[in-house]
Automatic annotation (TrEMBL):
It comes from Flavobacterium hungaricum. CDD domains: PLPDE_III_YBL036c_like. This is Pyridoxal phosphate homeostasis protein. The modification N6-(pyridoxal phosphate)lysine is found at residue 37. Belongs to the pyridoxal phosphate-binding protein YggS/PROSC family. Transmembrane segments: none annotated. Gene3D superfamilies: Alanine racemase.
Length: 243
């Protein structure tokens, strides 16, 4: 298992570098985040020891349980799953960044808890660029308005935009929803909001990372291609489904 993970990591880095070469981008501008839902802590540790520095969990419980093993390791922990407001307090114990900010009540709760703790937090705004009912995230039309509302929340560092995008066996069908995230960022830039002139795009997974990089991704979130297939319920990003 250890060897497989190291081999897979190498292959994923090669895919990232190839995609960068093809689209004339600098590989330094595309980070790899390990999507580690359902992956045992020992396997995550293997990847961290191989040099990885970014991990992302979807569920508070997994974040907490694995922290016992991974807590001391030098790695940035992102939360990438749907976040219920009643779990904010717990998630804040472990996460350095929340990529799934998708509604005002969640922003309000984060602001409230972070103010109590007197700290700031990096966030990505999640956008439902594929318009699928099953996916979380703001509608593309509402992102600018949402940003106008939260831009002055002193505890939130808006780092960028995140999307899952449409997954399909046909590669080209995945492109439009990824391209849309960049279009939304252009709209935000056009609005010239103070402090928001360097937003990262978090998009691209095992299936679509090449296309995502061609469309401007700065962070791909990869699980399956590194850790193998996981046993899944029907909705992997829905915090409610497996509890
Ligand atoms: C699981 C997951 C990923 C990674 O998906 P893979 O297909 O396993 O690479 C990326 N982003 C989110 C939000 C996820 O839940």
């Amino acid at each position: 298992m250890k060897n497989a993970i190291v081999t897979n990591l190498k292959a994923v880095h090669e895919r990232i570098e190839n995609a960068c070469r093809i689209s004339g981008r600098n590989p330094a501008d595309v980070q790899l985040l390990l999507a580690t839902k359902t992956v045992p802590a020992a396997d995550i540790r293997t990847a961290i020891e191989a040099g990885e520095i970014l991990i992302g969990e979807n569920k508070m419980q997994e974040l907490r349980d694995k922290n016992e093993v991974l807590g001391q390791l030098p790695v940035e922990r992102h939360f990438i799953g749907h976040l219920q407001t009643n779990k904010v307090k717990d998630v804040l114990k472990y996460a350095n960044c929340i990529q799934s900010l998708d509604r005002l009540i969640l922003a309000d709760e984060l602001q409230k808890q972070l103010q109590i703790q007197n700290r700031k937090l990096d966030v990505f705004i999640q956008v439902n660029t594929s318009y699928e009912e099953s996916k979380f995230g703001l509608s593309p039309e509402n992102v600018l308005d949402f940003i106008q509302k939260i831009k002055n929340y002193p505890t939130l560092n808006i780092k960028g935009l995140m999307t899952i995008g449409l997954l399909d066996v046909e590669k080209e069908k995945m492109r439009p929803s990824l391209r849309l995230l960049k279009t939304i960022r252009d709209e935000i830039y056009a609005a010239k909001i103070e402090g928001l002139n360097n937003l990262k795009l978090s998009m691209g997974m095992s299936q679509d990372l090449e296309i995502a990089i061609e469309e401007g991704s700065n962070m791909v979130r990869v699980g399956t291609s590194i850790f193998g297939n996981r046993f899944l319920g029907k909705e992997i990003w829905n915090e409610n489904s497996a509890e």
